[in-house]
Write a structure and sequence with these properties.
This protein is α/β, with parallel strands linked by helices and 203 residues long. The protein is built from 7 helices and 7 strands; from the N terminus they run αβαβαααββαβαββ. The protein has a 7-stranded mixed sheet, with helices on both faces. It is globular, with a radius of gyration of 16 Å. The N and C termini lie far apart (37 Å). The relative contact order is 0.18.
Length: 203
């Protein structure tokens, strides 16, 4: 994980991500991460699961340029999301170098790094079945779009892990995903890490 960046002190968030991925690995289907940045969590997952020994693909989607203003809601703009995004860019939190990310993942096979904005890039996900979906896009419209587009391909029992669901300052994301969950009558588990967890019903 060193190549994926520094230690962000996200120990419990990573722990939850690893548990969710290990659970999903018992199900048929590929893995998808929407919002990769340098690949801190996804590289940890691949290490845990010995990814090269598995016969499945990991789709990794990101703008690799911070938020796309076209897909930030008016509510989020009013809440200062674009200013926060600018500050993150200025302090170097987001990578703008997808080729460096490709190098970070060069030890792993069966991965596909997809560059661009969601929802534009969602059609490039070739998975017929998805066991694990991690969503970390830092604004609501693309997060809901990803969940809507991929839900039908999620394997029964498959997991959606939401990075900022109950995290301070990300209320629009919570409300957006609450609406998505309500339309499918599937509850979201709110975790003390600020994450949210959905499990697709098996029936």
């Amino acid at each position: 994980m060193k190549a994926a960046g520094c230690d962000y002190n996200w120990h419990w968030r990573v722990h939850v991500g690893l548990w969710a991925a290990a659970t999903a690995a018992k199900l048929p289907g590929d893995f998808v991460e929407c919002g990769v940045n340098r690949g801190f969590l996804s590289s940890a997952i691949m290490t845990l699961l010995d990814w090269n020994a598995l016969d499945r693909r990991f789709y990794l989607l990101d703008t690799f340029s911070g938020l796309d203003e076209r897909y930030v809601s008016e509510e989020e703009k009013a809440a200062g999301v674009l200013e926060r995004n600018k500050a993150e860019i200025e302090r170097g939190f987001y990578t703008f170098e997808p080729e460096e990310v490709r190098k970070n993942f060069s030890e792993w096979k069966n991965i596909e790094i997809i560059v661009g904005s969601i929802p534009d890039t969602l059609p490039q996900i070739g998975a017929k079945r998805i066991a694990f979906l991690h969503i970390d896009l830092n604004c609501s419209p693309p997060e809901v779009a990803a969940a809507e587009a991929l839900w039908d391909r999620l394997t029964p029992g498959g997991l959606i892990l939401l990075d900022d669901y109950a995290y301070s300052g990300y209320r629009s994301q919570k409300l957006g995903m609450d609406g998505f969950a309500k339309r499918r009558d599937v509850p979201i588990l709110s975790l003390p890490t600020g994450q949210g967890l959905m499990i697709k019903p098996a029936i």
